[in-house]
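Re: [help] complex structure
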Amino acid sequence: MSRFVYADNAATTKLSKTALAAMLPWLEEGYGNPSSVYQLGRASRRALDGARDQMAKALGAKPEEILFTGSGTEADNWALRGVCESLGDKGKHIISSNIEHPAIANTLADLEKQGFEVTYLPVDADGLLSAEAVKAAIRPDTILISIMFANNEIGTIQPIAEIGAIAREQGVLFHTDAVQAVAHLPITLSELPIDLLSLSGHKFHGPKGVGALYVRKGVRLPTFITGGGQERGRRAGTENVAGIIGMATAMDEAVKHLDASMAKVTALRDRFIAGITKLPAVRLTGHPIKRLPGIASVVFECIEGEAMLLMLDAAGISASSGSACSSGSLDPSHVLLAIGLPHELAHGSVRFSFSEENTEADVDYMLEQIPPIVAKLRAMSPLWEEHAHA
Ligand code: PLP
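Output below.
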């Protein structure tokens, strides 16, 4: 019997019922503009302030350090472009990694066109960056280090505290794209040497199209969107009140139950990994231990990830592949190439990502459905025949 299993929680998550319930009043009767002076507006303003307090508390930050944005991508853009604008006259060098999300990678590429110079540090076969390498890359003209907290494709978690400590010791600003990590790993910003951090609501059961940038008190970041005086004049545009409230509620809920959900999701992930790696010529990518609780990325030798996704979909399973179909050609993911996978293996990558909404029955269903799909695809592959006789 076919069922529906959503195993693409790193792409987005289902909106939590608590978040939806918190949002609804602000989509119905509470429609006032938070900048308006009358009661309806003041109620929206209070709700917005409450959401900021709630998020700050969940992250161990101060309310004034949380700036709302329209996405994780926007928060990344603001951090990188903002630091370049404010410190560009002091230096033009940025340090990052070669496994960043396009929100960072493409923004850096754009900044390079504007005259900034970027050192893209390599990662090892597990996708891990060395803090020592970050230290060695710092130059007198380095103005920013931007390293993702945890990778969205393979799940590897970087030594963020160590990198941040090095940045602080050297007097360089440190930004982390924590879109995959916030509300999935314990993060207390008052205890971490992080200056700027990006997050996104829809990755932790909040709504889409809303995010935030944490800016440590004392770090100067210029206005990103000019217009009205919202976000203390730094990011104009009438606030997405319901979205922000949904995001804050989802974060509060996630952080309150973090220990239990991390344990549950890790157990589901490991049950899946144990089962799937029993298949021949299947391997896990990413760090075996330092990985996000929800992500299991797997390479199926002699299989096209995209073909596998279609067959999984037919079986009711939603997952995603490491390769992105861009302009008609299948490009293997830069992350998989960065961990040293040859092109043909990188094409056979599929990411399964779990949340606390998943069950053991979901995992067992996947482990039952996937082997015949793998066998069918390999039976059609001339490469598999060669592999079998090698
Ligand atoms: N950074 C990382 C690591 C991500 O995984 C994502 C989303 O996939 C983003 C940034 C972009 O976030 P958003 O979808 O809110 O723009």
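The radius of gyration is 22 Å.
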